[in-house]
Amino acid sequence: xxxxxxxxxxxxxxxxxxxxxxxxxxxxxxxxxxxxxxxxxxxxxxxxxxxxxxxxxxxxxxxxxxxxxxxxxxxxxxxxxxxxxxxxxxxxxxxxxxxxxxxxxxxxxxxxxxxxxxxxxxxxxxxxxxxxxxxxxxxxxxxxxxxxxxxxxxxxxxxxxxxxxxxxxxxxxxxxxxxxxxxxxxxxxxxxxxxxxxxxxxxxxxxxxxxxxxxxxx
Length: 218
Fold this sequence. Notes:
The chain is mainly α and 218 residues long.
């Protein structure tokens, strides 16, 4: 706790320190655990995006190039590259990941160095992560119900966006960036990892069910 002069002249007023305020929120929303999660998910997502960019360049250089994740007709980055969904905005989707994942990585590194950001920054990060999550959900739906082909590195990005979205939302609820009733804030904090696990399991189950015949050789 820190003390500041009490302007009423009656003594000193006690205000909570940043550490004390951090300890009052759910573990996933605390400064260092959240920063490490942001760093790991951002770094893994960036690496997967980078591999996809390199694989895409290789296919441009040599049309006969076989990508490293061309496992079968149903699991093939090369086949996915040929679809319009792989370049939704007129350029390869992984280029978005290369740029976008730098933001959570940089944010995490700054937090671990002791930085504290203002509310407008967290609103911006929440907006970006939410849009990224929506984009990933769209890509998931296209892979399962339209293209019917999986991309391993794309699925790594999906797997990283789930905890990133959940934990950024939980962090912003816990610290008042997103205004919500106390019961909602407490539920989100207490069940953050359960929500993440359910989304992981649901995604994996949807992939298995949709591609069951391919996986089982039917």
